């Protein structure tokens, strides 16, 4: 908020010098740019570069949890790939993070019917004692039932929440359920629980648990927390209905304070107004269980593939295209680090968007508030329709976790929304591997991203000026 005045001043300058929409002041007429965008989209449908990028990343690097040696190798790999593809100003911007490293993890039902359970530790969880923690479980079929439990009612118990995640194409089922993983451990601890288990936030029925980060609340005891695979959560529901169940849980993660990560950057410099930047990206880090193919090898491949096609055009767009491969999205560090490092530059970032929703085709595109009905929106609509995507006139409220910090600093964001119907079947599991990517669908996503990115970079559109004035 303290930057409001700054952006107001910059906004006025941009509005005066650049105009409000795609305009005749641009070097090329609108029809030429629309034609260029259309041919870019068609070219992308048969360009193997994005798939090759994610194939190389997942094969030669594999998992790349932020703060690990593997992620460091991925950063060097990414710099080399960007340079080889002709990107300019390729560099890596360092930042510190508190790295969390998975250890041994197991859960067993103890007593007269001993059984092994498939679990995985939540990112950020504290460890159990070296011998594990053993306690009776208290099962809650919904998260609200846990929240309704009285303080002290879970003393000495392991709280288990088995609420189902709903399969929704746009990912809203995950959004609705994320508090169960993020906040559940602290809510259970406040009621006396000694450990926390949740049914994985996933839409599959495989015995592969889904990891993901938790957020401990200040003032609440920090208790160990893990996700059960979906079949194991259902097994516990049935067993608990038959009588008391005791579980022994062993989790031994460790933490590296002040570990290093990097946001990797490459640019296609603008031909006319290089200081104005269209920022697109994905996150290079991944969870450690699979090879991070759909989350988010696909996303970095999409941003790379789209920008690379634009770089190969005979005439470059007026504005700079900056590709950022963020370095610690899963543990929530890279977006804030980027926004902080680029605080003074936010006024020059025309629009920002992150691809972080898998490898399937883009179904719809949302632009910043006020853009519906603009020349820019019409040009976009016209060029993405043949690719099988629609312009969604609702304003983009979210452009990806890693551009949220920029958005807070006043940068307009766009949302290129992919088909996520099966994304949460393998999300954050050992099953997030290359074979889940359909190259044809990935190519369509690259096509829509290349069209959007090109049109934004080749125009004078000023999304800040299109938006209704702040109250
Ligand atoms: Zn992601």
Structure overview:
By secondary structure, the chain is α/β, with parallel strands linked by helices. It is 35% helix and 22% strand. The strands form three sheets. An eight-stranded mixed beta sheet has the order 3-2-9-5-6-7-8-4, with helices on both faces. A hairpin with a 4-residue loop joins strand 2 and strand 3. Helix 2 packs antiparallel against helix 14 and helix 11 runs antiparallel to helix 14. The two termini are 13 Å apart. The structure holds zinc ion. Zinc ion (ZN) binds next to helix 9.
Q: Helix coverage percent of residues?
A: 25-40%
Bound molecules: zinc ion
Largest sheet, in brief, is: 8 strands, mixed
Sheet with the most strands: spatial strand order: 3-2-9-5-6-7-8-4
Mean pLDDT level: 93
Molecular shape: elongated
The span between the termini is 13 Å
Write down how many β-strands occur, each being a DSSP E stretch of 2 or more residues.
Answer: 16
Number of helices: 15
Q: Any descriptors?
A:
five-stranded mixed beta sheet, 15 helices, elongated, 471 residues, eight-stranded mixed beta sheet, binds zinc ion, alpha/beta, disordered N terminus
